[in-house]
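Appendix B, record 7
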Amino acid sequence: MPEESVAEPAVPEGVAKMAAPDYSAPIPDIFPGDALEASSVTGLAEAELAPVARQPWRVLGILSALMGFASISTDLYLPAMPAMGKSFGASDGRIELTVSGFLIGFSLGQLLWGPISDRHGRRAPVALGLVLFIIGSAGCAVSGSAEAMILWRIVQAVGACAGVVLGRAMVRDLYTGAKAAQMLSTLMTVMAIAPLVGPIVGGQILAIAGWRAIFWVLVGVGLATLAALLTLPETLPPARRNHEPMVDAFVRYFSLLRNPRLLGYAGAGGFFYGGMYAYIAGSPLAFITYHHVAPALYGWLFAVGILGIMLANIVNARLVMRLGSDRLMAWGTALAAVSGIAIAITARTDLGGLGGLLLPLFLSVSSTGFIVANSIAGAMSGFPERAGAVSALIGAAHYGSGILGSALVGIFADGTPLPMGWVIAVCGVGSFVCAMLVRALPQQRPRNA
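Structure tokens (predicted):
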């Protein structure tokens, strides 16, 4: 193609370009495992990325909405669970299964959307997922029994996870290496607003219009996000799509699982998620029942942890371009391991009472900002042409571990914070071990699975 005299559209640093990478050039080794992130990866043409460059905050807002569906789908209706139980005449345990059903659908659904998006692009699968989310939310709003609610929550989850898993893949389509980790960290800072204000907003909707109105609000959120999605460009052009049969695409999950670096990143994030969901499942008992915290105060204690996540994400976004995501992930997992052990000790000895438990819990929860975004970006950086499948696999590992972590707290519940503490400690140490595995393994070039 002949050269043109017009100026090329400005593209921010770190945005993927169409030029093929030059693997003959040496890559400076910032930290073991970080060399991979310095390489270029094929992406969209600069002309196609011009809208992204001109309106980065709009793109950031839409991707944040897509990736926030996991939080908003659950946090908004948490205050309404007792009212739902009374409406259905169902036990507390039956209503709690609406959360478990959502997590199961969310975990398994991600494995479906990844290969579909790698074959058909990002926008159409996300749009289909949003339609399912809207249908599932409407079904929840008109449910007449707890069993119907659980089924509709599974439908809602399968749709919601499309936005989350493909939102991450769209970031990987648009940005490379440390810039991708920086963008994911920024997105997660914005996403942290949902669990911070979700229960408060849900409580107000409940008081004004009843619990069914919460799910109608979710229908409206889905419709608004679907309309906004249509303004985004397709981030995976046909030339970069994976055209293998869908059956082969699912089989290729097993080839991804044979990659030790990918397993290391998945383990670092997966173990950590197990600890996080142990905290979510165990903290109400630990705070309210064991330490006699007023239920109204529990929400504020929970919010302090969310603020810690937001702060850590901000710090991570500022440092990742200079220090590298692998290094920051290693630091985060070390913090999670040490604070997890401290949680187990204080839960066993009651050292310091409530305050002695809150401080290591705050540090453990805050380490999310250094672990999650960096582990996701590291996992996807080695497979640019299969970012959707890798994102789905990582997401399934995260939420699958979350189901296991929360279940272990319930199985070993003894009326004290100890089961929560030991699960968090074991998961923190496991996350650190996996991060060290990533450091020890040789770096790899971006390639197809």
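Remarks on this record: Residues 35-440 form a domain with the Growth Hormone; Chain: A; fold (CATH 1.20.1250.20). Residues 260-290 form the longest helix (31 residues).
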